[in-house]
Amino acid sequence: MDEYVASARSHWGPRFTANGVPAADFARVVDGLESWDDWCAAWSAAASIHEDLGIEALDQGRLRSAGAHLSTAAVVYHFAKFVFVRDLVQMRAAHDAAVRCLDAALPHLDPPGERIEIPFEGSTIYGILRKPDDRAPHPTVICVPGLDSTKEELRATEELFLDRGLATFSVDGPGQGEAEYDLPIRADWEVPGRAFVDALVARNDIDADRIGVWGVSLGGYYAPRFASGDERIKACVSLCGPYTFGENWDIMPALTRETFTVRSRSKDADDARDLALTLTMDGRTASLRCPTLVVAGKKDRLIPWLRSTAATSCCSRTATTAAPMWLPRTGTARPTGWLTDFERDRPAAAPPNQRAHDDPGDAVAALSGLQLQERGLHRAQGVGMTESGEGAHLAADGT
């Protein structure tokens, strides 16, 4: 087994299965692999089984089963192309299959999804909108994936928000998914972010005053950068995102560096590293005015927690109203409840004198109207927050 397959086996199992890959598929495919060169083909073969089951269910009129099989096929095809940048033809075929399967699944999901295409700088960026069953207009969370994540990977995350009454808009921005072929990675995510918000606020079924953004991994940089440049974003979650992506360059896995080099259209690794250093919140935190939850996992092997947005925001004491959450026993998590409470129950905008507080937990409480104890949220020595019932806890000593 080569080092790339060994690394994937060691690191990716929880991520794959949490996002919809059957555990049996992960074990069967990865255990049978010896060379990274066979990764995409092996996972595509596994995905095709689910696609065939979905097509059969469609033909037989079993629409709910069809949606389930096809959405599973989409995420398995997605992980076939995931960071597989050595053979771009093979990668593109797997990605096209992921998009095809999700598009076929959308009408049969519960709730169903709607594909949205947004013209952007001579090309197109994409999103999948899903809305809960309750009465419109809906508070909405824009879900931003990471370096080589895509909207096809986010069904499980969407369900957590949808179950709590929030609509979801999972997107492919520059360097991601369907947009990656024409639009390279860029630092100024407030620019594509505005296009996503413009698309939402133009609709009658979306509450333009209750739009938040959630981002994971590199998306955990994109989300606060986005929110810092668009006042229409009313709440932000940065999950395991970097403060400056390039700071971690030398300790990143080789697959991550290779993928960033390709997705950013860099000439070589040195050029990619220089570009990665421009993906930073330096000079932006003072513009991040909305309540913001920043999360870091102390066992995160990609974005070390001491270099994360969470740690930096806590230490810098900028005007940002940030509440950091440090998870001592995890790599990543899904802190949905905080954003759900904010989006569902947020009162009218807080007066200006409530926009800055010495304690980040108090800032979130004041700006969002949350009563921390009543909502099951508990502060630990004024440093962090955790939500009971979500499986993430911060010790009182911060460890």
Protein architecture, described:
This protein has 399 residues and is of the alpha/beta class. It folds into two domains: 1-110, acylaminoacyl peptidase (de novo design (two linked rop proteins)); 113-399, Rossmann fold. Helices cover 39% and strands 17% of the residues. It is built from 14 helices and ten strands. The chain has helices spanning 3-11, 13-18, 23-31, 39-59, 63-81, 88-105, 155-162, 190-201, 219-227, 254-263, 269-276, 309-316, 336-345, 360-368, and strands spanning 113-120, 123-130, 138-144, 167-172, 206-216, 233-239, 292-297, 322-327, 377-380, 384-387. Strands 1-2-4-3-5-6-7-8 form an eight-stranded mixed β-sheet, sandwiched between helices. It has a two-stranded antiparallel ribbon with strand order 9-10. Strand 7, helix 12 (309-316) and strand 8 (322-327) form a beta-alpha-beta unit. Helix 5 packs antiparallel against helix 6 and helix 10 packs across helix 11. The longest helix has 21 residues, at 39-59.
